[in-house]
Amino acid sequence: MNGRTEGEYDPYAFEPFAVTVDLAVFTVRNGALHVLLIRRGEDPHRGAWALPGGFILPRESAEDAARRELAEETGISDTTAAGLHLEQLRTYSDPDRDPRMRVVSVAWTALVPDLPEPQGGGDAAHAQWIPVDTERELAFDHTRILTDAYERICAKIEYSCLATSFCPPQFTLGELQQVYETVWSTALDRPNFRRKVLATPGFVEPVPGAARLTGGRGKPAALYRAGPATALHPPLLRPEGRSE
Fold first, then answer.
1. Angle at CA 188, nearest 5°, toward 147 and 37?
2. Most buried of the four, 2, 20, 168, 236, by CB within 10 Å?
3. φ and ψ at residue 183, rounded to 5 degrees
4. Which domains are assigned to the chain?
5. Which residues pair with 130 in a beta bridge?
């Protein structure tokens, strides 16, 4: 009984297990949606592609662990990616998802503007931005996590202002439209998109006096920044028949 009285909680009666974090980090670059993957430098699955992540330390929250692992394995931090949006996706707890022991993963998804190629570190031999539509098998159950994360962001940008997280601090409406078209894999009507964005209170704000040449012979395009709103009313829905 280890000195315990009858009915007292016994932590040794339960099999121990580990808790990890895994991150699906997305960006838009070169006109395509990319996800950040690492090449595993340790067993199991040495040499396989995987999502960044690792074990949560004893005195660490899941969010702190996610930010630490992202910085350690890829060099991406709140400093290198200003305005890094990180949100919890879901928990993955299938008993056999990790060959080492019972491991429960708290998965996160992050949206960042286009950044330079990351640097591998920790137990990651290499880190790289990979187009989402590239077919490759990932270690553990990371293919499932990546699929769930992609479906989450497709829906999330309909009802929230998170699409601006893919943009630089100042952006044109054309660049914002490209984010939607890239994530949803569909073309949008330019005048209709512009009208909806500007009619949504707090979605974007004009940068006074700022403009950027975007190619061609037209006048420079006005620059905007993310506004104070967090939700879109009404939502900016995907074209009918294009939902994932």
1. 30
2. 20
3. -65, -45
4. 15-158 (3.90.79.10), 161-226 (1.10.10.10)
5. 35
